[in-house]
């Protein structure tokens, strides 16, 4: 042990800084403060020296798929809001306005990648094949996450802001170790001795401009940078942390923060699904190939309220919302698809019909979604047998049994 | 049987863990080439490499949070928090994330993380280096908390903690790191359940329940009481969550008197929980109220007065006197 492990404690800060900056800019071909945009609000496709080639890989079917996904999740969002108004959900967290940021990034991920969402990533959930009815269970108060993350590689929602960011980095550190363990055994590289190699994987973790102020984001970026962990930090800057504007969280573009940690940061038009997809594909591949973390700042806007309990008229002008509605992610893709002849009326009619079907499914499954038995909570507090839990459960059973027989059971509890 | 200190026993236990399970790894501040500030991980990086003995950035939330992520990927992380008073930057990750992950995933996810924390006072150290925060964690469902008081337990319990599928906080009695004792490293497996208490001295007149650093103190107090003709039973709790109430109840039904002593403040502490439970379970066997001996309701005091704060032999004997006065 010792000498070979010890890192140098001396370096020329200026030189290191320049080197990293040069690396980042060479890799990206763009200065990190400029916003990457391919599909503008007017529905015309622009160019980018690095990311246009990613956009060129998208055929009409892919683009129609993006539109269908965005339309579906917007419809889902409206339906969930309605269900909250009906008292079927305790709370809802709308995503309208952020469809491109979520569908574009989610569709750039691969099945072997692992995703850590915060709590507004319904669009990403859709791209990971999470049953959207399961997703509503948390907001109905019948589960803290109705899906098994192992089935979809889409983690549960995390409500303590940014707490999931170090989990993502740790998970990525696990992927690194898996690769090294496999390499030590002579498998897992491009051509494994024991059959086909596992595809390389990366982790993507979502958080917002508000959560970017949390210490866990800082610690996560330090860990990720120190270990070159294969993780993409995907920050949706939707401009409002409930009622507090981004300017209170940061005085510089959030993407610039990556430079301080020594990895690339990219600001992308978060309402441009083509650019978000391109940038995320690049970032995930960068991470999978062992080049370390990337920060993506998707510049977008929460058109609706923070939650159904929020009232944006108290803290922002409706003119601001109107301005952002002109940058709507669905409208611009629709314009493009129509202008290029990639989609016809029948397509849009089908999307609307699919939306109705999804809404009906969501309504039905929500109405039918009942409270679990509290015994499952007793069962899931610990993996292994626990005497206190067993004692309290036994008491609960005895107490409950006291009510089972009507009057004779009264007073049986203690 | 081999004689070694508690620090060495944990070191050997971790070595055995790293050897036996390729998915186990250690992480923490200064645990690599330095071997930890108490040298508990001494030499391990040389044997197992920097992938398995990970010197982390200086960030407790990051340590616990990344340990959770590693566990989600199938690893068995053993995270070291350098001192008791420095666990709090990681408190959120422990209580809102680690403790709840299995439950909130409806049992789909497990996070078998072990967090090692040197705890307790009596070492003449500066602020934040002598605290006993175990009750804060014991109050959190989903966590298990164990603490060895001797080298044999230290060697085995750290391995049992790693093998446990639930998150375990492993409190190490830092002022006893250099306490020597015999360790049976040869046996095929440990016989003792880490979540069960042990009677470390049998007696008939009163029971003293202690754990971690106060076990030798209670044994010394029992010896002193014996000179006065009092036969004191001493129980080493070993597990703070869950607590082995059956063992305490059985002892109290025999002795009729119960003293619980710990370094942590008595208010809201483990002693209060034991007193309440035993009052429910063995009310008619008690000859006297359950008496708690512990720290005062004040921040851990400066080192030059810590002897006035820490429960010692005389404080336990005084409590026994009160119990026998009923």
Automatic annotation (TrEMBL), chain A:
Cofactor field: thiamine diphosphate
Q: What is this protein called?
A: Pyruvate dehydrogenase (Acetyl-transferring) E1 component subunit alpha
Query: A Pfam family this protein belongs to?
Result: E1_dh
Task: State if Cytoplasm is listed as a keyword.
Answer: no
Residue ranges of domain Dehydrogenase E1 component in the record: 70-347
User: Which species does the entry assign this protein to?
Assistant: Arthrobacter globiformis
Keyword Oxidoreductase on entry: yes
Domain of life, source organism = Bacteria
* Name of the gene this protein is made from: pdhA
From TrEMBL, chain B:
Top enzyme category: oxidoreductase
Where along the sequence do coiled-coil regions lie? none
Alphabetical GO biological process terms = branched-chain amino acid catabolic process; response to nutrient
InterPro entries assigned = THDP-binding (IPR029061), Transketo_C/PFOR_II (IPR009014), Transketolase-like_Pyr-bd (IPR005475), Transketolase_C (IPR033248)
UniProt cross-references to Pfam families, sorted A to Z: Transket_pyr, Transketolase_C
Record-level Gene Ontology MF annotations: branched-chain 2-oxo acid dehydrogenase activity; magnesium ion binding
Transketolase-like pyrimidine-binding domain mapped to chain residues: 4-179
User: According to the UniProt entry, what is the EC number of this protein?
Assistant: 1.2.4.4
Q: Which UniProt keywords apply?
A: Oxidoreductase
Q: What is its cofactor? A: thiamine diphosphate
> What's this protein's name?
3-methyl-2-oxobutanoate dehydrogenase (2-methylpropanoyl-transferring)
Species, as recorded: Arthrobacter globiformis
């Amino acid at each position: 042990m010792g000498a070979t492990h010890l890192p140098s404690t001396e370096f020329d800060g200026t030189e290191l800084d320049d080197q990293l900056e040069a690396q980042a800019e060479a890799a990206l071909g763009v200065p990190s403060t400029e916003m990457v945009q391919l599909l503008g609000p007017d529905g015309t496709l622009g160019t980018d020296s690095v990311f246009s080639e990613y956009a060129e890989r998208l055929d009409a079917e892919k683009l129609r798929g993006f539109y269908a996904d965005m339309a579906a999740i917007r419809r889902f969002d409206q339906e969930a809001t309605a269900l909250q108004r009906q008292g079927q959900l305790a709370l809802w967290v709308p995503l309208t306005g952020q469809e491109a940021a979520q569908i574009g990034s989610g569709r750039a991920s691969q099945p072997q990648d692992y995703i850590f969402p915060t709590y507004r990533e319904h669009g990403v959930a859709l791209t990971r094949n999470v049953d959207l009815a399961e997703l509503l269970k948390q907001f109905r108060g019948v589960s803290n996450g109705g899906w098994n993350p192992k089935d979809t590689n889409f983690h549960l929602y995390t409500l303590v802001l940014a707490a999931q960011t170090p989990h993502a980095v740790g998970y990525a550190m696990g992927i690194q170790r898996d690769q090294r363990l496999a390499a030590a055994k002579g498998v897992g590289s491009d051509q494994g001795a024991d059959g086909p190699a596992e595809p390389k994987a990366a982790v993507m973790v979502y958080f917002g401009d508000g959560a970017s102020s949390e210490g866990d984001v800082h610690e996560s970026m330090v860990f990720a940078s120190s270990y070159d962990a294969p993780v993409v930090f995907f920050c949706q800057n939707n401009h409002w942390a409930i009622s507090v504007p981004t300017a209170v969280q940061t005085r510089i573009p959030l993407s610039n923060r990556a430079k301080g940690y020594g990895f690339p940061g990219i600001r992308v038009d978060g309402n441009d699904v083509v650019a978000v997809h391109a940038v995320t594909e690049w970032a995930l591949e960068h991470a999978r190939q062992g080049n370390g973390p990337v920060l993506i700042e998707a510049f977008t806007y929460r058109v609706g309220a923070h939650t159904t309990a929020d009232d944006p008229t108290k803290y922002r002008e409706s003119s601001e919302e109107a301005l952002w509605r002109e940058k709507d992610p669905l409208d611009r893709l629709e314009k493009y698809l129509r202008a290029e002849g990639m989609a016809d009326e029948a397509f849009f009619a089908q999307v609307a019909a699919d939306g109705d079907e999804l809404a009906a499914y969501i309504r039905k499954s929500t109405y039918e979604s009942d409270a679990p038995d509290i015994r499952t909570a007793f069962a899931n507090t610990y993996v292994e047998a626990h005497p206190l839990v067993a004692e309290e459960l036994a008491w609960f059973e005895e107490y409950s049994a006291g009510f089972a027989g009507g009057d004779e059971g009264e007073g049986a509890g203690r | 049987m081999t004689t070694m200190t508690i620090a060495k026993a944990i070191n050997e236990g971790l070595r055995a863990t790293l050897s036996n399970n390729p998915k186990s790894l250690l992480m923490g501040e200064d645990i690599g080439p330095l071997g930890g500030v108490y040298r508990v991980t001494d030499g391990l990086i040389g044997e197992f490499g920097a992938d398995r003995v990970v010197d982390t950035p200086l960030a407790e939330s990051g340590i616990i949070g990344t340990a959770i992520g590693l566990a989600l990927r199938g690893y068995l992380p053993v995270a070291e928090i350098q001192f008791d008073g420095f666990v709090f930057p990681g408190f959120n990750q422990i209580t809102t994330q680690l403790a709840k992950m299995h439950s909130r995933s409806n049992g789909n996810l497990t996070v078998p993380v072990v967090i090692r924390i040197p705890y307790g006072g009596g070492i003449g150290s500066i602020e934040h280096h002598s605290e006993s925060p175990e009750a804060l964690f014991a109050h959190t469902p989903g966590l298990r908390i164990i603490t060895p008081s001797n080298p044999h337990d230290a060697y085995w319990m750290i391995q049992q903690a790693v093998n446990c599928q639930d998150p375990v906080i492993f409190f190490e009695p830092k002022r006893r790191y250099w306490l020597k004792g015999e360790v049976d490293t040869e046996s095929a497996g440990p016989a003792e359940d880490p979540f069960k208490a042990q009677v470390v001295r049998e007696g008939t007149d009163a029971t003293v329940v202690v754990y971690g650093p106060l076990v030798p103190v209670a044994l010394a107090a029992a010896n002193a009481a014996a000179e006065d003709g009092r036969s004191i039973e001493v129980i080493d709790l070993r597990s703070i969550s869950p607590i082995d109430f059956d063992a305490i109840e059985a002892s109290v039904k025999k002795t009729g008197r119960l003293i619980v002593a710990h370094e942590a403040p008595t208010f809201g502490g483990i002693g209060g929980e034991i007193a309440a439970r035993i009052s429910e379970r063995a009310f008619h066997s008690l000859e006297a109220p359950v008496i708690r001996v512990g720290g005062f309701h004040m921040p851990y005091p400066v080192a030059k007065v810590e002897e006035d704060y820490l429960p010692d032999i005389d404080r336990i004997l005084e409590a026994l006197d009160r119990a026998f006065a009923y």
